[in-house]
Amino acid sequence: MSEDDGRDRIGDGGETHQRAGGARPAMTTDQGAPVGDNQNSLKAGRRGPTLLEDHQFREKMFHFDHERIPERVVHARGYGAHGFFETYESLADITCADLFQRAGERTEAFVRFSTVAGNMGSPDLARDVRGFAVKLYTKEGNWDLVGNNIPVFFIQDAIKFPDLIHAAKQEPDRGFPQAQTAHNNFWDFISLSPEATHMVMWIMSDRAIPRSFRFMEGFGVHSFRLVDAEGRARFVKFHWKPKAGLQSVTWDEAMKINGADPDYHRRDLWDAIQSGAFPEWELGLQVFDEDFAERFPFDVLDATKIVPEEEVPVRRVGRLVLDRMVDNFFAETEQVAFHTGNVVPGIDFSEDPLLQGRNFSYLDTQLKRLGSPNFTHLPVNAPRCPVHNFNQDGHMAMRNPKGRANYEPNSWSAEAAGPRETGEGFASTPVPIAGRKERARADTFADHYSQARQFYRSQTPVEQSHITEALVFELSKVDVPQIRSRMLSHLLHVDETLADGVADGLGMPLPDPARPARTPDTTLAESPALSILRNGPDSFAGRRLGLLVTDGADASAVDRLMQAAGGMSVTVTVVAPRIGGVTASDGSTIAADEKIDGAPSVLFDAVAVIASEEGAQALARTHAGRTWLADAFAHGKFIYHDAGAAPLLPPSAIDSPDEGMFDAAGTAPEGFLDACARLRHWDRIAS
Ligand code: HDD
């Protein structure tokens, strides 16, 4: 800063920073008055003090001081994008919902993905449920499908929700742990809530550590209703199926990714959309009638249960494409307000007590968070169809009724009278309801273990071992032995081998099994749809290859690999010892995207090393160099390397090379990338 004119300067040479002028609009205050100097407050003399009269400073600081709004009480950390939903074929036979009437119809969409427990600044790879909230701006109003990436929930009745969330978040006396369930309070609550056992299987599986939002499923969870033009209703469960297949990371990777890139999922979605690789999901419907609901051994109103896809197949009825990032994170992703109660004619609720409670909670929370009942006036929340009613006033009202009439009925002339009812809007399905007023749970909700067992037994052995390891990890952070033991007493009803494995991992004896509210059914058929590994991608497209290079690397080998990857829609990140890149064997420069210690191999789906022996030897003397391939090998990744890379290979890879290792001398890059579609060589790490 120079004393002579008080204007900001950069660089140590004292040169004035030349800001681009021309097309940039002139800066103004919020009142529109021009601002000539945005760097210096108004002072009495150059060395101050600052004058109270400085309205420009006062306005700027006032606005800054009020920038924050309360973060969401759950799902605080999220990331959103715009896109569209396209209907494949008319569904007029099952619903009169306008967006499903015409094949090819496109409906504008906004989606927000989130973690549940962590605060806004928590890392993306926490072991947690992911929110999958979709807003569809239909011609008959906004429909919000506020789902998760797991099709069941922890509790059956919304009255337990505050306790569940209190138990999952930081413990109140100490304010930690952040964004994790590995603590006493969570497992205390869970072990005292047997209804959570099915959900526990899901969150201890790799579903809770997805590789990307792009590679996870979404679920509406509850049974809803579809209603046709004649008023006939059928139950429906909603699914989002990622076209790119399912994929998760391993727990060791998750912990390391959280350090290396806490924004891993955000960055992934940003990169994909910005590069034009728009992620897609298909909307799937499981439609069933009252007869099926009666026959089905579980209550379809119980949100801790699924309807297996093998019993009611998922009909794919349209696709959701995310093709545009927000212009402003706060305005859109932070201010978007979802509400399960936002349904449109043709879609109705069921009596699920969890859904009923949600329908109350979401409006309430939006008022708290956004500060006014007028949050529907914000562009991201505003319907794209006309809105006419007599709701008025309130903070920040931008859409008040015009003219004299602000009530109904009125007898003003047609032009002045305002909107009228048509008799054709949303009609609740006239489900007959009878019963005594009581605080009770239906007997049909009493089976807490059968589907937990079905889920566990539907996993591949690798996935089963991950569930065991996750339970051991989490419960090892619980320092009250009785809580651990109580969890084991539930696991005994899920699967004895699982309970044995967890008890062994904890170094604890097995207790007696918990007394079940209903004897579990141990004969449920396995459901392959529940496994991630059985529902992986067809190709390596959309994935990221980490390519480590050193000085002296073979430029043509690098080029061949890059070409092959580009041809298969695989993104390559070039990692080098220095960000300035390396000098290849032919003297050319290979540009780097990342310096090695900022880009450990956990960030990539597969890795390759093209190096000179001297370059590799030098790198092997650093910690980042030594761990790069060692980690990739330990995580079961596919590895492509040339002869020069040898000093970087871990001893186990040299002693026992396996089918997940590809020597550039004997394999074309295309062959390696084809193999990568399997994502990992599980045999290497199967315990
Ligand atoms: Fe919820 C947010 C999904 C049960 C109360 N929920 C929220 C979000 C998602 C879900 C994805 C984030 C929306 C966004 O991105 O803005 N919630 C679920 C699912 C549930 C569920 C799939 C069970 C099937 N939720 C649930 C219950 C209650 C709530 C039982 C209360 C009775 N949820 C809320 C909330 C939140 C919320 C407090 C916090 C922020 C918000 O609504 O907008 O109202």
Automatic annotation (TrEMBL):
A Pfam family this chain is assigned to: Catalase_C
Full protein name: Catalase
Compositionally skewed regions (Basic and acidic residues) per UniProt: 1-18
GO CC, any one term: cytosol
The enzyme's E.C. designation: 1.11.1.6
Organism, as annotated: Roseivivax isoporae LMG 25204
Residues spanning the signal sequence: none
Swiss-Prot/TrEMBL catalytic activity: 2 H2O2 = O2 + 2 H2O
InterPro entries: Catalase, Catalase_AS, Catalase_clade2, Catalase_clade2_helical, Catalase_core, Catalase_haem_BS, Catalase_immune_responsive, Catalase_large_C
Keyword Metal-binding among record annotations: yes
Record keywords, A-Z: Heme, Hydrogen peroxide, Iron, Metal-binding, Oxidoreductase, Peroxidase
Annotated residues for binding of heme: R72, R112, F161, R358, Y362, R369
GO biological process, one term: hydrogen peroxide catabolic process
Region entry Disordered, spans: 1-48, 401-430
Record cross-link 3'-histidyl-3-tyrosine (His-Tyr), residues: H339-Y362
Superkingdom in the source lineage: Bacteria
SMART domains: Catalase
Single GO MF descriptor: catalase activity
Top-rank EC class of the record's enzyme: oxidoreductase
Domain Catalase core residues, every copy: 28-416
Family designation: Belongs to the catalase family. HPII subfamily.
Cofactors: heme
Lineage: Bacteria, Pseudomonadati, Pseudomonadota, Alphaproteobacteria, Rhodobacterales
Active site residues according to the UniProt entry: H75, N148
Known role: Decomposes hydrogen peroxide into water and oxygen; serves to protect cells from the toxic effects of hydrogen peroxide.
